């Protein structure tokens, strides 16, 4: 109990009049007795708090009637882990009783190890403490574990055990097999927690080696953020040494003549083999010519139909100074105790073939060339021969493949065709196998023969061409002569026709008319050249040339071309009209002459003469003189 005292004192001013007066002093106090009160905690409504390990939960706890105010504490699990720092508290005072109500809120996340453990809320002050608690129901995704197992090759029944830890519980598991390096091999239909491996032949049981994965799901999200949870264990199945599938392209290996080479074989072996031996036939290779080594590598093999990577070994045989006898079959034996497995490797040459020898040209014709050679060593492979040829003076080689046997040291003969006659060619040869080709032989030169058929053909063509030229020349001469004679006959005919026409015309004329024309020539001035142009000189002058010749007068210029330009049928009509006008008998020229005359100009000209008689008489005078 605490006693509180309160003293009140008043001091007055004392004057001289109060001297020798007795004074009484009294002490007055009030006592208020205060008692500490233990907090009363309110129990949780539910005894259990359900949560998930990946989620935080919120929970509240309250105490009342405490004096002084209570402190609130949160304790977790059997160890009583203090998680109070994750909470917040608030107190309210009742002034009439000087008591406090305190409320605490906790926000926290637990994991699966707290499942089933207590969460305690405690209120405490100087008077004492009280607490309440609840049980945690922590839900969590399955935790999957799979045991590691080792099986012998002869063990027939093989089972793999898994353990599932989950809330709510889950007992099903989906199984699959993977390689050590994660390649998926196969799934299993068995969904139990215990997997029984399928039965396979003894030689295939090594393929059961690998990682076995169990997958489980109960609908709760795991801390890894996945609904499906997995666990795995590694299973080893013992077996004799295995020549792995990555050797399938290495049954034949290659080396070069005179060089060293290596034969390599990949092996998978658990447990590891104990001894390595190499043989040629039944002969064990132990001389200094051969050396064996091994190294750990990743190999590839097929497990239940799937190619996977494995931890294995590479066994290597080194052979020095390869000779032709070394290109043969080699056998590798891997021992495990008294038992062994073996593998055969064939060594072939990877050398280029030798250059063919004695390459010569034996003969040629107009379009073919025959060559001969001796094949060299083929390099351990089938070789093919090629002849290259080109026209002398050019740079481009043409290739001709030669199909022949692969026999050594025998002469080969081959005839190439398709060449041009009388042409110079250069030829050379080389051999080739699937690895490389030989050097070229020396170049041989030859000229194809001249083609006899071509020579006789050229002679015939030349003779025919000469005859044709001569015939053409003769024909040209004959045609020229005929044309010349024809033109000459036409000129003669024209002149005779003109003569007869003019003679007939002259006889029919009365004497005084001709004299009148002559008389007029003495008195009439000569007409200008324009007169001739107006009268179409080309036709008119020619007509009267013959008249002038009949009179003994000098002839005006007249050409054969003028007569040729005269019309055929109109010329006759001109003279017929003249005769009729004068009342004289007509002197008709030959029909050939009329056909040679132009059909266009004559009729028009003489018709104009008839209408312009005066002017035509002047023309006669001018033509005469």
TrEMBL record:
<dbReference type="InterPro" id="IPR036179">
    <property type="entry name" value="Ig-like_dom_sf"/>
</dbReference>
<keyword id="KW-0812">Transmembrane</keyword>
<dbReference type="InterPro" id="IPR003961">
    <property type="entry name" value="FN3_dom"/>
</dbReference>
<protein>
    <recommendedName>
        <fullName>NCAM</fullName>
    </recommendedName>
</protein>
<keyword id="KW-1133">Transmembrane helix</keyword>
<dbReference type="InterPro" id="IPR013162">
    <property type="entry name" value="CD80_C2-set"/>
</dbReference>
<dbReference type="InterPro" id="IPR013783">
    <property type="entry name" value="Ig-like_fold"/>
</dbReference>
<keyword id="KW-0472">Membrane</keyword>
<dbReference type="Pfam" id="PF08205">
    <property type="entry name" value="C2-set_2"/>
</dbReference>
<feature type="transmembrane region" description="Helical">
    <location>
        <begin position="28"/>
        <end position="46"/>
    </location>
</feature>
<dbReference type="Pfam" id="PF00041">
    <property type="entry name" value="fn3"/>
</dbReference>
<feature type="transmembrane region" description="Helical">
    <location>
        <begin position="459"/>
        <end position="484"/>
    </location>
</feature>
<feature type="domain" description="Ig-like">
    <location>
        <begin position="33"/>
        <end position="137"/>
    </location>
</feature>
<feature type="domain" description="Fibronectin type-III">
    <location>
        <begin position="355"/>
        <end position="451"/>
    </location>
</feature>
<dbReference type="InterPro" id="IPR036116">
    <property type="entry name" value="FN3_sf"/>
</dbReference>
<dbReference type="InterPro" id="IPR007110">
    <property type="entry name" value="Ig-like_dom"/>
</dbReference>
<keyword id="KW-1015">Disulfide bond</keyword>
């Amino acid at each position: 109990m605490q006693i509180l005292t309160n003293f009140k004192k008043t001091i007055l001013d004392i004057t001289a009049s109060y001297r020798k007066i007795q004074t009484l002093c009294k002490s007055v106090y009030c006592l208020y007795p205060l008692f500490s009160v233990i907090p009363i905690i309110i129990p949780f409504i539910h005894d259990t708090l359900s949560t998930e390990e990946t989620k935080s939960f919120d929970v509240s706890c309250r105490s009342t009637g405490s004096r002084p105010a209570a402190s609130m504490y949160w304790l977790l699990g059997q160890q009583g882990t203090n998680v109070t720092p994750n909470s917040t508290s608030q107190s309210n005072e009742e002034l009439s009783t000087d008591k406090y109500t305190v409320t605490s809120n906790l926000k926290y996340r637990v994991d699966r190890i707290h499942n089933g453990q207590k969460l305690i809320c405690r209120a405490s002050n100087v008077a004492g403490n009280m607490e309440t608690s609840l049980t945690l129901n922590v839900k969590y995704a399955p935790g999957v574990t799979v045991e590691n197992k080792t099986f012998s090759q002869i063990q027939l029944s093989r089972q793999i055990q898994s353990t599932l830890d989950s809330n709510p519980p889950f007992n099903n598991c989906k199984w699959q097999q993977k390689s050590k390096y994660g390649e998926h091999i196969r799934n299993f239909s068995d969904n139990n927690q215990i997997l029984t491996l399928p039965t396979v032949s003894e030689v295939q049981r090594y393929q059961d080696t690998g990682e076995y994965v169990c997958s489980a799901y109960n609908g709760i999200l795991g801390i890894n953020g996945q609904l499906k949870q997995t666990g795995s264990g590694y299973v080893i199945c013992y077996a004799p040494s295995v020549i792995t599938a990555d050797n399938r392209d290495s049954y034949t290996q290659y080396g070069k003549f005179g060089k060293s080479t290596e034969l390599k074989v990949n092996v998978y072996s658990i447990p590891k083999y104990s001894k390595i031996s190499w043989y040629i036939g039944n002969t064990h290779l132990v001389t200094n010519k051969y050396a064996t080594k091994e190294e750990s590598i990743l190999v590839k093999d097929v497990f239940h139909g799937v190619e996977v990577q494995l931890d294995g070994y590479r066994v290597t045989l080194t052979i020095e100074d390869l000779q032709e006898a070394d290109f043969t079959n080699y056998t590798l034996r891997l021992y495990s105790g008294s038992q062994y497995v073996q593998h055969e490797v064939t060594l072939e040459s990877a050398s280029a073939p030798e250059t063919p020898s004695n390459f010569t040209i034996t003969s040629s014709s107009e379009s073919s060339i025959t060559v001969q050679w001796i094949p060299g060593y083929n390099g351990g492979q089938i070789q093919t021969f090629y002849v290259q040829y080109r026209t002398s003076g050019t740079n481009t080689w043409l290739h001709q493949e030669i199909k022949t046997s692969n026999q050594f040291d025998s002469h080969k003969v081959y005839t190439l065709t398709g060449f041009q006659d009388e042409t110079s060619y250069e030829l050379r040869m080389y051999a080739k196998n699937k690895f490389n080709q030989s050097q070229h032989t020396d170049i041989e030169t030859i000229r194809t023969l001249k083609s006899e058929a071509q020579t006789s053909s050229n002679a015939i063509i030349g003779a025919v061409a000469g005859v044709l030229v001569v015939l053409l020349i003769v024909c040209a001469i004959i045609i020229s002569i005929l044309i010349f004679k024809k033109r000459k006959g036409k000129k003669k005919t024209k002149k005779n026709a003109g003569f007869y026409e003019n003679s007939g015309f002259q006889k029919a004329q009365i004497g005084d008319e001709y004299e009148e024309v002559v008389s007029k020539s003495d008195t009439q001035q000569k007409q200008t050249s324009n007169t001739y142009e107006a009268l179409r000189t080309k036709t008119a002058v020619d007509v009267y040339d013959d008249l002038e010749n009949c009179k003994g007068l000098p002839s005006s210029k007249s050409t054969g071309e003028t007569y040729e330009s005269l019309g055929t049928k109109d010329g006759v009509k001109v003279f017929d009209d003249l005769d009729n006008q004068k009342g004289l008998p007509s002197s008709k020229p030959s029909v050939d002459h009329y056909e040679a005359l132009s059909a266009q100009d004559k009729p028009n000209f003489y018709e104009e003469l008839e209408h312009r008689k005066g002017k035509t008489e002047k023309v006669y005078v001018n033509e005469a003189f």
